[in-house]
Prior knowledge:
The chain is an alpha/beta fold. It is built from 22 helices and 22 strands.
Amino acid sequence: MTFEELGLRREVLKSLTELGFEAPTPIQEQAIPYLLGEDCDFVGLAQTGTGKTAAFGLPLINNIDNAARLPQGVIICPTRELCLQITKDLNVFAKYLDGNITAVYGGTDIRTQITNVKKGTSIVVATPGRLVDLINRKVVQLGQIKYVILDEADEMLNMGFKEDIDMILEQTPIDKNVWLFSATMPNEVARIARTYMTDPLEVSIGHKNQSNENIEHIYFSVKERDRYDAVKRLIDFNPTIYGLIFCRTKNETATVAMKLARDGYNAEPLHGDLTQAMRDRVMERFRSKELQILVATDVAARGLDINNITHVINYNLPDDIENYTHRSGRTARAGKKGQSLVLVNTRENVKIKAIERQMRMTFTQGQIPNPAEICEIQLKKLIDNTIATEVKEADIAPFMEQILDSFKDLSKEEVIKRFVSAEFNRFIEYYERAGDLNAAASKDDRERPERNTDRKSRAREEGKTRFFVNLGRRDGLNPGAMVRIICDATGLNSKALGRIDIMTSFSFIEADDEHTQKILKHVDGYEFEGHKVSIEVTAPGQGGGDDRGERKFSKGPGSKRGPGSFGGGKKPGFDRKPGFEKKGGFEKKGGFDNKRSGGFDRDRGFGAKRNKY
């Protein structure tokens, strides 16, 4: 099928021809004819990078009255970057139509945006918070809205925009058309469909929550202390990488980016502590490929729309499995191929299995490249760059006699060796004493995740202090939240942390011995979701993830607490019979589970179907 067969206006087709668009993508082929043909509500489920912007943008600019001064269409998206990208795309699509498309978003002067809206606009592209602000100021009037598009709906809800979206939709006419586009379908997105849509057509490209088939998913088992060195090897082994590295916390993001820059890599961080001006500068450098590596948190990277990203590296797995869908979806866009690389420690292999189950894809277990492999790759890169180097004959000619005279006593082979060594020696020197970073997983680790609760695995790692924390699962605590509490309170890197065991009403975490007093000082009393954290040191050999024997805790060297005394607001009281839970550090109830979320059928593949929400 071609775009001409979809029924688009001549002016729109002319723009697409100039852009070089030839055939619609699956989501465009399914959505555009339907959205052009009738008033309707619509749900489009497809991965990031599959052409969703054109799927809703082309029928929107085709259907509206471009001469209207009040907005007839409003597009709501999660981030400033996506807002600007959508606006740019729509302006290109509408190049030969008389219409005005206005972007409104936070982090910039609202007065300029107010002026632009008051000039008259047919389409508003907005982030939720700024749009609510303009509605409250009576600047944006939604009384004539015919089309509401929610793009990256799951991302907006993950970012806490539920109330804003409800408020905006309540301001629009009852007979509007609502078009919802999302990569995944959690419960809150399904709620929007049930509340604000009538008998919507659902188009699902692949299964819900399914990964892009052009992405190769590879995981690497490493020891916790080797994560950073493993990332460097993956970058060195892929010298043409143009990639994103995802970290869990702002501190970890800043630390990884700082270390990479210090070690000579072209990398910068992107996290919530950056000002809008700093964020804009970083993104401009990354888009222009002046920057090769962007190290980001999940929140900061939401809504990024950048083509040609070759690799996504997960420094660690996200707490929520749906965040992995969005992370990996940053590569393999517009039909290209890409790789999503994941670093896990040997206790996290069960999470890989959970992702495979929910996303209906398969990970390949990879091996961190050894020094010889990396040196070979880098040597080839050096040779290729040397051969491709442009020689400016006129500039170098005056010096050639001197250069040739300097090398007259060396053979051709010796000259080549010296030139190569001048650039290559740093790799040889760095890797000559480097060992194998691949961690040996326990036997059949992925198939038998529960076997990690034996006595040996409960033993405290050498050089680590084990802490008791008075909060557990019923307080909303999970391993990722535990890491954030420790890192945010102390400023430590997550690399300093070890095993985490989350129980029903309390938890354990290990950390490097050298940070014991810092953790006790800064974490004790920390607020987590309305609860005050109490943290204590377990006695050596105690505080494991089983129910044998009594536990002893202390606030440090001067503590005089007796056996079984926990402090804090909760005292679970370690009695052998009540059954201290024997689960490992990973809890299946968190983001990694095999349960269906939302009222949508995960088993439906490509195609369209009416759905009752």
